[in-house]
Design brief:
- By secondary structure, this protein is an all-alpha fold.
- Helices cover 73% and strands 2% of the residues.
- The protein has 21 helices and 3 strands.
- A 3-stranded antiparallel beta sheet has the order 1-2-3, with no helix packed on it.
- Helix 5 packs antiparallel against helix 6.
- The protein is globular.
């Protein structure tokens, strides 16, 4: 009886243990399946978004979308902010908006031309275009030719339409500077050869703009110069010295004229002259405060009713904050942030050094001008007169900014992945709609190819000299008994040989594996020669892949 009870107790314990084990296994399986499903669910959107970012034409579509959104928002806000001003000065609430639409059309034509222009043609026209803008800067200073507006002789007025040549000078200098630095960089020019043509030309253009005088355009051109020096990879001391010189020049210009020094004083003490020189900045902050979180509504702002001077131009960001609120202002800054990301993405993925330098400099210029404009509207910086790109009312600024956007979009089509996809016949709706030609792949010059080959040849002996030393240390010396691992490998079966080969280092593992397969004596140098031959093959393959990849950066 006791034996029967013991057997039953043992059987119940075994069944309970099996039930517990199966329950634990199912629980563990469910717990493993749940995190895997959760992780799959959480990573699926990321993977999908990452796959979209990795598409060849993503940069092209992003820059077109950002440009379209900024241009549309700018036209809407110019229409909302300029109605009272237009009616007071032109008798029609549509006058300023009509001129802005016309200049936007001119800018879109320039955008399309820049989008279709071959890179070689653009580089060929870089210096003649910059020389032509220098001539325009000289002509605008002549009384009777250049017109004075807002205290600056910097405008050409033809048939009632005004144009600012300093805007063209900035664009031409950016294109020519990128072309010059990219060419000199490929030629391994000295630091003096890279700086001598660029910096004196910038000084000439800056001096002509200061003579107008126009502090805002001077600051904008200085940003372009600093961007070229930084992204060209010049030494840090050159960039820092140029930055210090630009800051000192801006400080001297700020206190050299009466109205500029008054702006600086009103920035340092906003309450000193609230009804005089500080009136505009004070009204801008009032407009931002009135907007609150969601704003008063589009077209419902009150600051544009002659309370805020230049509401449609330099201080249009205050109208955006009043009518669209904090949410609308933050959305606008988010669009500029998306543009900054897209521009730097295009610059990073470009294989052509010229397009890389031009795109990065243009991105820095647009974002820097946006920061300066928003900074003096909210009171963080003194008023400089720089416009908000693609948002403020201004004909020549709108057209030239759209021209540079076209160049950045052209650079997006010349990314190596985009070039390969388009030339392979991939259908892209935007390219088909715009009837764009196929982009040409970047082909490095003969000098660049020769320099890369010489660089690889210099690095290959150093690589080959370092590897045999390590392998010789790993190879067993002659006359010594082989290690236990090698002996066990020789007697191992065929099924264990691949795993043993994967676990062993290069020198002894391959020699032992060959001796096990041949079942005979092998000279001590046999394994070493075969290792050297395999390493040479890998070096040749790496060198071939390097030279093949240098075409696309």
């Amino acid at each position: 009886m006791a034996g029967i009870l013991a057997r039953l107790r043992r059987r119940d314990g075994d069944a309970a243990g099996e039930t517990a084990d199966s329950a634990a296994g199912s629980t563990e399986g469910a717990s493993e399946a749940a995190p895997s499903s959760n992780s799959a669910g959480s990573t699926a959107p990321r993977t999908r978004f990452g796959a979209w970012l990795g598409r060849p034409m993503t940069s092209f579509h992003l820059i077109i979308a950002v440009t379209a959104l900024l241009t549309t928002l700018g036209l809407i806000m110019v229409l909302s902010a300029s109605g009272v001003y237009s009616y007071d000065f032109d008798g029609s609430p549509w006058a300023v908006f009509g001129r802005q639409v016309m200049w936007t059309g001119v800018g879109l034509v320039a955008f399309y031309v820049a989008l279709r222009m071959p890179v070689r043609t653009l580089r060929r026209l870089a210096f003649p275009g910059f020389a032509f803008t220098i001539l325009l800067l000289i002509l605008v200073l002549i009384p009777g030719i250049g017109k004075v507006a807002n205290g600056s002789r910097g405008w050409f007025v033809v048939a009632g339409f005004s144009m600012q040549p300093s805007e063209l000078a900035k664009i031409a200098f950016a294109i020519w500077g990128a072309h010059l630095l990219a060419a000199r960089r490929m030629e391994r020019a000295s630091l003096r050869e890279m700086l001598i043509p660029l910096v004196p030309a910038a000084v000439i253009a800056l001096a002509l703009i200061v003579a107008q005088p126009d502090l805002g355009q001077t600051v904008s051109l200085s940003i372009i110069l600093l961007g070229l020096l930084w992204y060209a990879g010049l030494p840090l001391r050159v960039f820092l010295s140029s930055l210090v010189a630009a800051v000192l020049a801006a400080a001297v210009l700020a206190v050299s004229a009466g109205y500029r020094s008054d702006r600086v004083q009103s920035w340092l003490d906003p309450t000193a002259d609230g009804q005089g020189i500080g009136y505009q900045s004070r009204q801008a902050r009032f407009a931002l405060a009135n907007g609150g979180i969601f704003g008063d509504g589009l077209g419902q702002g009150t600051a544009k009713w002659n309370y805020l001077p230049n509401a449609h131009n330099d201080f249009i960001f205050a109208i955006i904050g009043e009518e669209l609120g904090f949410v609308g202002a933050l959305g606008l800054l988010g669009l500029f942030g998306l543009f900054a990301y897209t521009g730097m993405r295009i610059a990073r993925r470009s294989a052509d050094p010229f397009l890389r330098l031009l795109t990065a400099t243009t991105t820095l210029w647009v974002v820097g001008q946006m920061f300066i404009n928003v900074g003096y509207v909210v009171g963080l910086l003194p008023v400089t007169g720089l416009q908000l790109p693609l948002i403020s009312a201004g004909g020549s600024s709108q057209a030239t900014t759209l021209l540079m956007m076209g160049l950045v979009t052209n650079a997006a089509r010349h990314e190596p992945e985009a070039v390969a996809a388009l030339r392979a016949g991939r259908d892209d709706r935007m390219n088909r709609l715009l009837r764009l030609p196929l982009p040409e792949p970047y082909v490095p010059t003969r000098l660049e190819v020769a320099r890369n080959r010489l660089h690889d040849r210099r690095k290959s002996p150093a690589r080959g000299a370092g590897k045999p030393a390590g392998k010789a240390g790993a190879k067993p010396t002659a006359g010594k008994k082989p290690s236990g691992r090698a002996g066990s490998r020789q007697g191992a079966s065929k099924q264990g040989q691949p795993a043993a080969r994967r676990r062993t280092p290069h020198g002894t593992g391959r020699a032992g594996g060959r001796s096990g397969r041949s079942a005979g004596q092998q000279p001590a140098g046999g394994g070493k020669s075969s290792v050297r031959y395999g390493a040479g093959q890998r070096k040749q393959g790496q060198r071939a892949r390097t030279l093949e990849g240098q075409r696309y950066g």
